[in-house]
């Protein structure tokens, strides 16, 4: 369960008969850490963050860069399947179980996990250190979706993003 004041939400799915995409439950690296009172210490992944699997052990980590420039070595290293964290480990339940439910695509979301930018409906988006960002105009970014029709709601601090099926590839 996500933090109650989280602004993340799935607002629609591509196909109402399908539940939403490639759902996975991935472990968080390091396991649970307790404070002196025995309460789990919150992690670093919020709901709505863009994440990937760590190639070393398959645990879930923040997706750091969407740079897939024309340099073949960079392109091969950085193009990865990314997911959206449905529940983060920044709250008690997520930090207790140390597993996150993630989706690959096939949905529209509202998220407060985005970098500053001029988000107009239809603009392509990528990711940077777990947050949505506008895709670079030179085509060097891995595209994971587009800004939805509602765009950026600056009053409530949420961005609508359409993440199509397979959008994280």
Give a verbal description of the structure.
The protein has 169 residues and is mainly β. It has one domain (9-163): Virus Head Decoration Protein, Chain: A (Beta Barrel). It is 8% helix and 33% strand. It is built from 2 helices and 11 strands. The protein has helices at residues 72-78, 92-97; strands at residues 9-13, 23-27, 50-53, 60-62, 82-85, 99-103, 107-111, 124-128, 131-134, 145-153, 158-163. The strands form 2 sheets. Strands 1-7-11-10-8-9 form a 6-stranded antiparallel β-sheet, with no helix packed on it. The protein has a 5-stranded antiparallel β-sheet with strand order 2-6-5-3-4. Strand 10 (145-153) and strand 11 (158-163) form a beta hairpin. It is globular and about 50 Å long. The mean pLDDT is 83.
Distance between the termini: 27 Å
Rg is 16 Å
Total of domains: 1
What is the second-level CATH architecture? Beta Barrel
Taken from the alpha-carbon principal axes, the silhouette is globular
Mean pLDDT: 83
Order of helices and strands: EEEEHEHEEEEEE
Strand proportion, as a percent range, falls in 25-35%
Order of strands, widest sheet: 1-7-11-10-8-9
CATH topology: Virus Head Decoration Protein, Chain: A
The portion of residues assigned to helices is: under 10%
Low-confidence stretches: none
Category by helix and strand content: mainly beta
Output the CATH class name: Mainly Beta
Total count of strands? 11
Q: Quickly count the helices.
A: 2
Report the biggest beta sheet as strand number plus sense, adding barrel if it closes: 6 strands, antiparallel
